[in-house]
Write a structure and sequence with these properties.
This protein is an alpha+beta fold. The strands form nine sheets. Strands 2-3-4-5 form a four-stranded antiparallel beta sheet, with no helix packed on it. Strands 6-7-8-9 form a four-stranded antiparallel beta sheet, with no helix packed on it. A four-stranded antiparallel beta sheet has the order 10-11-12-13, with no helix packed on it. Helix 9 packs across helix 10. The radius of gyration is 30 Å and the shape is elongated.
């Protein structure tokens, strides 16, 4: 049975709307919604889309990458493939500079720069898979020890103190680094304030009417969000944390998708590899004589090979995947916040974002709820409703949620000029055709890990427990680091902690204690002349040395006191 694959990525230009459903990319006229072209140059799900307009030729390009680890450049609107290059690792972030340089951050924490066009000497349009020689072709401009999860380009703005182009990068371990671009080895600042992974960064340039940054007319800022319960606001160029906007209480009730982990398969239902190999060795002659329906072997094989893999949900967690600036000025605009697995869009007006904590006449953040989880949001160039200050296009995961799977996979949302609130617009006849043609079909619904990869980053190995059960969480932390097969009861372990330190050190410590006890027994029965092995002598010397060290420490501590 086929199902409709949702649109997982969106992009737009002043004339076009661009959608990505699974591995298919489609373009539409922004004014009429008429389909223009579709292409499936990628061999796996498309994860990121970016557009770039060449100022010299006015040619518009689409840069895309996904699960196939291919960086592709296509010419819009017909999606003509210009070039395709393999990436060293799968991308986690994609940006394009004002000069057309493609900036890619990968899962291993490295950030690379690729040119828009391949050199003429590189003959094929589609590059061959990289080998050992290709690994040195592109060296990273900067790197994180942890997994890189977000990027933001900060162009130079001398009027606000930004003398150089910067690049902000966030990782899974709550670090935000601001480096010089493209000389990423020059670290300008660290933005401190996050307590969880940083999955979204947004640069807010100074408004045109503000030559300098002051309290009355804010300058340049950097927004950070991710697994924290707040959104952090950093003033540039100092990277000073000036405000934290709480959002967890607003958005958590609307999160309906959680990360998943495989359910262990019972040993009795695992596939018998030895039996499978034995059947292959019997030859084609035996294959022509299948077992009867009543034979036990045939029934067992059918059960083991057709059982689907089961998954269980992990505890609910929040991760911001995108922040989008909308509006024309900081007086009537704001930031739309998208959270993975949430059915609601969060809108924070600039007045609330930059307002003093004592202000009382500022409109608070507002929510717009839907019946399906939201996958992506992008600004539309042509408003379709009267009274709209601006509009955005929202895509849904219609395979999940209380709504019907046949409901519209996309919708338009308007920011009303009268009260600065979000409202969903009705689906027009032209919208219906556009929305349906943007989706592809698949044999089975997409997995949670495919559409919401950031959710799996919220749970570190060994920290997966029931948040509602403190005892279970405490027990899980006590088991952290224990080797597989270690069956010692945690409640029966000694206070010294030797029992919970598996590995060579614990084994050596246990052997030393055993030899020491054996030496004590021999000395007690045979006196000082009792024969001891070299190992027993070494154990006695080690234990006595430890005792002397502890005694010296106690005496020294008493003297100081």
């Amino acid at each position: 049975m086929t199902s409709r694959h949702p649109v997982q990525a969106l992009a737009s230009t002043p004339e076009l709307l661009i959608t990505a459903s699974d591995r298919q990319i489609s373009t539409y006229d922004a004014a009429t919604n008429a389909p223009i072209a579709s292409a499936s140059h990628h061999t796996a799900l498309v994860r990121f889309l970016c557009t770039y307009t060449d100022p010299a030729t006015s040619t518009v390009y689409l840069i895309s990458t996904g699960e196939d680890k291919q960086l592709q450049v296509s010419r819009l609107p017909q999606l003509e493939l210009v070039n395709s290059r393999p990436l060293p690792k799968r991308a986690n972030a994609l940006e394009v500079t004002q000069k057309g340089e493609i900036v890619v951050g990968d899962k291993f924490g490295d950030v690379y720069i690729f040119p828009l066009h391949v050199e003429p000497t590189a003959a094929p349009v589609v590059a061959a898979p990289s080998d050992e020689d290709d690994k040195d072709a592109h060296q990273p401009i900067l790197g994180h020890v942890s997994m890189l999860t977000s990027l933001a380009l900060i162009p130079a703005e001398p009027s606000c103190g930004l003398a150089h182009d910067w690049i902000a990068s966030g990782d899974r371990d709550e670090h935000i680094r601001i480096s010089r671009f493209p000389a990423g080895h020059v670290i300008e600042k660290f933005a401190w304030g996050s307590k969880s992974l940083v999955s979204s960064l947004l640069y807010l340039p100074p408004p045109p009417s503000a030559p300098t940054a002051d309290s009355r007319n804010p300058g340049a800022y950097l927004l950070s969000a991710g697994g924290d319960s707040t959104i952090q606001l950093f003033r540039l160029p100092s990277a000073e944390l000036v405000k934290q906007v709480p959002i967890a209480d607003l958005i958590l009730p609307h999160i309906i998708v959680c990360a998943q982990r495989p359910v262990p398969i019972p040993a009795g239902r695992r596939k018998d590899k030895r039996g499978e190999r034995k059947n292959k060795e019997q030859g084609a002659g035996d294959a022509a004589q299948p077992k009867s329906d009543g034979e036990e072997g045939a029934t067992e094989t059918d059960n083991t090979t057709t059982t689907p893999r089961q998954f269980s949900d992990l505890p609910k967690a929040m991760a911001v995947t995108k922040m989008l600036e909308i509006g024309t000025t900081r007086e009537n605009g704001g930031v739309i916040v998208l959270v993975a697995g949430s059915t609601a869009l969060l809108y924070i007006p600039f007045r609330a974002l930059f307002a003093d904590s004592t202000a009382t006449d500022v409109a608070p953040p507002c929510l717009l709820a839907f019946s399906h989880p939201i996958l992506d949001v992008v600004g539309t160039p042509v408003p379709s409703a009267a009274g709209s200050l601006c509009e955005v296009l929202v895509s849904f995961d219609t395979t999940r949620g209380p709504g019907s799977p046949d409901s519209a996979p996309l919708t338009r949302v308007s920011l009303r000029s009268e009260d600065s609130s979000l409202v969903a617009l009705p689906t027009l006849a032209t919208d219906a055709v556009f929305f349906e043609s943007a989706c592809t079909t698949t044999d089975s619904p997409p997995a949670v890990s495919s559409l919401y990869p950031v959710l799996s980053l919220l749970h570190h190995p060994g920290e997966i427990g029931d948040e509602a059960d403190p005892e279970a969480a405490a027990k899980d932390k006590r088991n952290r680091g224990r080797k597989r097969g270690w069956t010692t009861d945690p409640d029966a372990l000694s206070e010294s902690g030797d029992g919970i330190r598996p590995g060579k050190r614990a084994a050596g410590r246990a052997e030393t204690l055993q030899r020491y006890e054996e030496a004590k027994r021999k000395l007690a029965s045979g006196g000082a002349d009792a024969p001891l092995t070299e190992g027993e002598k070494a154990a006695v010397q080690a234990i006595e040395s430890e005792a002397q060290s502890e005694a010296s420490a106690v005496v020294e501590g008493s003297t100081v006191a």
